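Figure 2 data, in text form.
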Amino acid sequence: MSDTPQDPRRRHSTPVVDGPGKAASRAMLRAVGFTDSDFTKPQVGIASTWSMVTPCNSHIGELAEQAREGADAAGGKGVVFNTITISDGIANGTEGMKYSLVSREVIADSIETVAGCEGFDGLVAIGGCDKNMPGCLMGLARLDRPSVFVYGGTILPGKGHTDIVSVFEAMGAHSRGDLDLIELKQIEETAIPGPGSCGGMYTANTMASAIEALGMSLPGSSAQNAVSQEKRDDCRRAGEAVLTLLERDIKPSDIMTREAFENAITVVIALGGSTNAVLHLIAMARSVGVPLALADFTAIGKRVPVLADLRPSGHYMMSELVEIGGIQPLMKTLLDAGLLHGDCLTVTGQTLAENLAEVTPYPEGQAIIAPLEAPLKAESHLRILYGNLAPEGAVAKITGKEGTRFSGTARVFGSEEEAQARINDGSVVAGDVVVIRYEGPKGGPGMREMLTPTSAIMGRGLGSEVALITDGRFSGGSHGFVVGHVTPEAFDGGPLALVEDGDTITIDAEADTLDVAVDETELERRRAAWQKPQPRYTRGVLAKYARLVSSASTGAVTDHAE
């Protein structure tokens, strides 16, 4: 092996397997299937998030094999390895949900760790759930080796046009007495018909669309059914594409530019996407050294309308958007209107404009994507709010269907469980602003999603009559008058820690403010009496995360400079 010619694409694998001094390395690899010729090929790591833990990822093992075969067919040597995933849909409303956002950091760390150790020259990462997608992108960005991300694909609708959020809201309807146990069980049994990510424009489909707009997925990857020939072909092409990227030395840092992130934000807004996109896009940008802040979502939101009538606030599901062409025609419309940067490089090796050049419009008569001249909402639904309750910002998803202003009486809870119990027993009533605090990145720890309480509020018929604010966050399936990511978080002594039952709280999504009607003198009195709570965890991954994590306003990341 000492006479092996240097292949410029083998920037990282050469020192691992070439020469007599690496005989031991080659011996190990022969045992997993390498042959003499494989040692001369660029190695492509295939990061698979396959797991039986969740339907979002239960099919990804097969997709990883397709990507490996694509890399092999294009002249590389594909090597599949796994990273973890968790299930928000299963863990929501439990203590286990505290591990959800933490898993994003673990996934990024694990991909960086394996690829850095093994000397992969390029990578394909395949994700299918809220946190493993941004986690994959963060790992790829840190490594900065030619890479392609593949979305695992969306689930099909359940019986009666149902999905996982239908089940959560049915639970709320049952607690109110509107649904008996048999009806609840029928929805439970039929809402999730097979593999794939949650079916609305929830966080998974939001992030898949954002990553395609960012240029890190092949065109069309974000809008394919999980179980389909199109998705298998997408994976195979991704494996092939990495070899082209290696040939041209195109890396994530060449693609994930400031302008590319602006494209991603634009598409998220047009689709009516999840608030989690704010958290994740900021985190992904930090991983590649691109400055991105809350203010950027406000600035872009002033010029980009909401066009998609997709769940949770709308009617349609991702599989129905797939049927009419996915997000490519939408992106072509936005590009033609001057709302996207067409000169951004993508994983095809071409620019975004070149990728979209031959894209045809949506079919006549479709009702999923509104025309630019008649949008569902003229400005962004993602509102960044500031005020005496959120001096460093908070994130709301206000579609306008719930109104744009809410003023009500604070009902304060120190955890999600406390709030959920009072929602279920009817203690929370019309006119209340439910305050759930000490659920932020440090305080939770882990910044749990509040899908269970928001779904309970909707299920009890209080969606337009009760608001909810928290230093935690929301599932992409949450809707109603909800505000999350309140910073500074209560655990750090943020103003949310000072709110008392009976205070008047006002959410104004036109002025973009979040305020409590308590004067500064009284707030200072309360601040002097406040005592920082003890950490809920002192050992293990949650404790480590709480010690390392940054504010939600900067992406809630653990990989950051002090």
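Caption note: The longest strand covers residues 405-413.
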